[in-house]
Amino acid sequence: MLNAAALNAMSANVYDFDDTHIPTILHPTAPVAAALFALAESHAMSGEAMLLAFVIGVEVECRIADAVSPEHYQRGWHITSTCGVFGAAAAVAKARGLGEEAIVWALGNASAQTGGLVETLGTMSKSISVGNAARNGLLSALLAEDGFSGPVAPLEGERGFLRVTASKPHWHALTQDLGREWALLKNTYKPYPCGVVLNPVIDACLDLRRDARWSIDDIEEIELTGHPLLRERTDRPGVRTGRESQVSAQHAVAVALSRGKAGLDEFTDAAVADASLRALASRLRFVDN
């Protein structure tokens, strides 16, 4: 069951085609849904019960992510992995009908197993921490159900998750309008299988591609103007693998302008090896705005 949760979450994340909670850039479904599907294989539940547990899990992870954003991600924590484990734990706790004390234990057990670094983006390692978020969240709730206790303040404690991973947590984000405002309504889909900050860049390139008054050979330089975060996250020239290309502005711009599309085939090892794309990608420079 635990390995199934991990593999489900890794599979959901590997193509970078996952959903995105816009305020935090968290990808909430992979850790939570993966844990619930694995649980349901051996613990039958109704579709309604699963959906309710899913919504609760997403709400928990997104609110925790809101509380530590944007500093958390800027400090190098991979927010889908670090906050996703709490969402998975909360979802499974709900599905198993845990009481208040056991739910706190589940979150406490999750706090002992959180992790994931932005440094892993563009590598296979990133999917490990996403898989662990589902696996460890599931394990945390099952242990709590069996009486395995945890800290009483895993989130807000003096050395709890929020204070450790953000210097100034937004405490109000945890409970403000709880039950009235739902994080799931701020969740959306990616149109392209790559880092979400590259999606509007690709949109712009595809719009340009539709203009037949120029050709690729006419391009001497590509100037990409955007928020400094765009450069910080996606300035990756000379990528060597399809995984790396998912977070490379150079590759995304080149492939969108050259091929006029940006689907799964455009972010593969074969696409990265295309000499014409590599040549075009080398002409890009960033302008922070």
UniProtKB/TrEMBL annotation:
Domain MmgE/PrpD C-terminal: 192-287
GO molecular function, one term: lyase activity
Domain MmgE/PrpD N-terminal span(s) in chain numbering: 2-171
Family assignment from sequence similarity: Belongs to the PrpD family.
Protein name (database record): MmgE/PrpD family protein
Lineage of producing organism: Eukaryota, Metazoa, Ecdysozoa, Nematoda, Chromadorea
